[in-house]
Structures are given as structure tokens and as C-alpha cells.
């Protein structure tokens, strides 16, 4: 049982606060304008929150007495540089939050001494470079968030030491290039978020080591076409987000080597035609968003299920169904709702759907 008197400081008209809650072993000092780590943090503390302050530098071993600390929050401060000496004594730390600081690069060995770290949040910094081995020593890390930084490329050597990583966020950066084997050593990864970058192409083998990946988010990039060899290695992929790119063409068998796929989002692309066999032998449902007046495939979402009676992913009740829906399977067509304007055979379009119904002008399936 902890016996530490709670010290509270509330300034008139502000939300600044300094307090220790013995019942949850939580010390927090927020929005007080402090420039260094407080010296009155109880050694029993398991959670320390130092948000919205002016801390620009952390002395070596500043937390060395906090052997019980599990969570450390340093969001919205002014940190520029990190070093492994900062984390001395924090072998039991599980969560480190460094969101919205001014960190510019991550040198090799930056996070040494954090053997138990499970979550590392580095979003909204100014990181332009991650040196090889920056994450060495983080063998227990499962979640890494690097959203809203200034990274321009992804290289496989960045991820050395992340042998347990499951979730990696790299959204809203300036990434335009993913080097061959750019996700080297991340065989345990299940979620990869690369949305809202400047990626215009994906080379064969880019995702080759991501055999456990189930969710891939590429929304809001600059992809212009889909090829089969883009997805090599993604045999476990379930959800693929390709909405709001510049995709004008999906080549034959573009999605055929994704045996576990269940959902593909394609809305917000300039597609007008779906070629034959882009889904191989997969059963596919195309849903029209009736709340949108947009045409072509800007308002289409693609879903894959084993059977015919698929349900839109946004449905919250059994009675909530899409009103304009047609379901396809390679070489066959079953109409559920909506109008089919023509059905072709031979060299003619296999299926041509009414534009007013689905937004698709031609579908070669």
C-alpha cells in the first residue's frame, strides 16, 4: 500500500495540475510549463504523465529510481534529441509516449535499456531519419506509431530488433519510396498503415516478408494501377485499403494472389472499367454508397466473402443492407439488387452494369 500525500496545484483559469494518486500509483504534472523532469516523483509510481510542458532535455538516468514504472507520457513537450542514457533504470517500462515533440532523428541504439517496452508512440514529431539499429533492444515491442513525421523513404534496415512488432503506423508522412524488402524482419506484423503518403508504385517483393499481415492501409496515396506482383507474400491479408488513390486500371489477376482477402476498398479512384479475372476465382461483392451522388467507382467498395450473402461492413443491424448491390464470382453473376443493363459473352464485355446503379461503366469479370 502506498502512503504518499497527494499534492495538488490548480492555477486560476487554467487546467495545469500536479498530483499523485496513490490508489493507482499515478503521478501527473500537466500544463505547468516545467522544463525538466520533476524530482518529487515517488519511487512507487507505475504511471507518470508529463504532458503539455516545456521539457526540452532529459538528463541521463533521470528516471533511474523508478524501477516500478510501467507507463511514461511525455507528449506535447519540446524534446529534440533522444539518447539511450535517458532510459537507464526503466527495464520494466511497457509504454512510452513521445507524441508531438520536436524530435528530428533516431540514432542507432536510441531505445536501449527498454527491454520490456510494448508500445512506442512517436507521432507528430519532425523525424527525417531513422538510423540502422535505432530500435535495437526493443524485442518486446508490439506497437510502433510514426504517423505525421517527415520521413521520405522506408528501408528494411530501419526495423532491426523489432522481432515482435504487430502494428506499424507510417501515415501522413512524406513517404514516396519503399526500398526493396523495405519491411525486412517484420514477419510478425499484422497491421501496416501507410495512408496519406506519396507512394506512386509498389515494387515486387516489397511486402515479401509480411507473411502474417492481415490489414494493409494504402489510402490516399498516388497509386495509378494495380498489378498482381504488388502483393507477393501477403497470403494472410484480409483487409486492403486502396481508396482515394489515382488508380485508373487494375490489370488481370491484380488481386488473384490474395487467398485470404475479405475486403478491398477502392472508392475515390478514377476507375471506369473492371477487367476480366482481376479477382481470379474469388467471390466479390460491389456495393454502391447510395448516400453519395458520385459516379464511376468513386463510390464503390469491394468486398470478398466465401458465399453470396455478404453484408456491408458498415452494417450495424441485420436489417441494415446496401440498397444497390450486385454480387460477382469469377465467370458467373447473380443479381441481388440493382439493374443489369446487359450481359455479354465471348469477346464482348462479360457484364456491363447500369451506371446509375453501381457507377461501373464496364465490368470484365
Task: List its salient traits.
365 residues, mainly beta, 16-stranded mixed sheet, 1 helix, disordered N terminus
Report on this structure.
With 365 residues, the chain is mainly β. The protein is 1% helix and 23% strand. The model is unreliable at 1-14, 285-301 and 303-365 (pLDDT under 50).
At a glance:
The chain is 1% helix and 23% strand.
Q: What topology emerges from the helices and strands here?
A:
Blueprint: E1 17-21, E2 26-30, E3 47-49, E4 71-73, E5 95-97, E6 105-106, E7 119-121, E8 129-130, E9 143-145, E10 153-154, E11 167-169, E12 177-178, E13 191-193, E14 215-217, E15 225-226, E16 239-241, E17 249-250, E18 263-265, E19 273-274, E20 283-288, E21 300-304, E22 325-329, E23 332-335, E24 340-343, E25 351-353, H1 355-358, E26 362-363
Parallel strand pairs: 2-3, 3-4, 4-5, 5-7, 6-8, 7-9, 9-11, 10-12, 11-13, 13-14, 14-16, 15-17, 16-18, 19-26
Antiparallel strand pairs: 1-2, 18-21, 20-21, 20-22, 22-23, 24-25
Strand content: 15-25%
Encode the helix/strand succession as letters: EEEEEEEEEEEEEEEEEEEEEEEEEHE
Strand tally is 26
The pLDDT mean sits at 78
Q: How many helices in DSSP terms?
A: 1
* Cα distance spanning the termini: 67 Å
Question: Cα-atom Rg, whole angstroms?
Answer: 25 Å
If strands are numbered along the chain, what order do they take across the biggest sheet?
A: 1-2-3-4-5-7-9-11-13-14-16-18-21-20-22-23
Shape assignment: elongated
**Which spans have pLDDT < 50 for at least 5 consecutive residues?**
1-14, 285-301, 303-365
Amino acid at each position: 500500500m502506498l502512503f504518499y500525500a497527494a499534492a495538488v496545484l490548480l492555477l486560476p483559469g487554467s487546467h495545469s495540475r500536479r498530483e499523485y494518486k496513490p490508489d493507482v500509483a499515478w503521478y501527473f504534472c500537466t500544463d505547468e510549463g516545467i522544463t525538466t523532469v520533476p524530482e518529487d516523483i515517488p519511487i512507487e509510481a507505475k504511471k507518470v504523465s508529463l504532458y503539455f510542458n516545456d521539457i526540452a532535455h532529459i538528463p541521463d538516468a533521470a528516471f533511474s529510481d523508478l524501477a516500478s514504472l510501467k507507463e511514461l507520457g511525455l507528449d506535447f513537450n519540446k524534446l529534440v534529441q533522444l539518447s539511450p542514457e535517458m532510459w537507464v533504470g526503466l527495464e520494466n517500462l511497457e509504454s512510452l509516449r513521445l507524441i508531438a515533440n520536436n524530435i528530428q532523428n533516431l540514432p542507432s541504439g536510441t531505445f536501449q535499456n527498454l527491454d520490456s517496452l510494448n508500445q512506442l508512440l512517436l507521432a507528430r514529431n519532425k523525424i527525417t531519419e531513422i538510423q540502422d539499429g535505432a530500435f535495437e533492444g526493443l524485442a518486446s515491442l508490439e506497437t510502433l506509431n510514426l504517423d505525421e513525421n517527415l520521413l521520405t523513404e522506408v528501408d528494411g534496415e530501419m526495423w532491426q530488433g523489432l522481432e515482435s512488432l504487430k502494428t506499424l503506423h507510417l501515415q501522413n508522412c512524406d513517404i514516396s519510396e519503399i526500398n526493396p524488402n523495405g519491411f525486412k524482419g517484420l514477419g510478425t506484423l499484422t497491421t501496416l498503415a501507410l495512408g496519406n503518403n506519396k507512394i506512386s508504385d509498389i515494387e515486387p517483393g516489397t511486402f515479401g516478408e509480411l507473411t502474417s499481415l492481415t490489414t494493409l492501409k494504402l489510402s490516399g496515396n498516388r497509386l495509378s494501377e494495380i498489378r498482381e506482383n504488388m502483393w507477393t507474400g501477403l497470403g494472410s491479408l484480409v483487409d486492403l485499403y486502396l481508396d482515394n488513390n489515382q488508380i485508373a486500371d487494375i490489370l488481370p489477376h491484380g488481386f488473384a494472389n490474395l487467398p485470404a482477402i475479405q475486403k478491398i476498398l477502392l472508392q475515390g479512384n478514377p476507375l471506369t472499367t473492371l477487367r476480366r479475372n482481376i479477382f481470379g476465382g474469388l467471390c466479390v461483392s460491389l456495393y454502391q454508397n447510395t448516400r453519395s451522388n458520385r459516379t464511376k467507382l468513386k463510390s464503390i467498395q469491394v468486398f470478398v466473402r466465401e458465399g453470396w450473402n455478404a453484408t456491408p461492413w458498415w452494417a450495424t443491424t441485420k436489417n441494415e443492407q446496401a440498397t444497390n448491390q450486385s454480387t460477382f464470382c469469377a465467370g458467373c453473376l447473380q443479381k441481388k439488387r440493382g439493374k443489369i443493363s446487359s450481359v455479354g459473352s465471348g469477346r464482348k464485355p462479360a457484364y456491363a452494369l447500369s451506371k446509375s446503379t453501381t457507377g461501373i461503366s464496364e465490368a470484365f469479370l
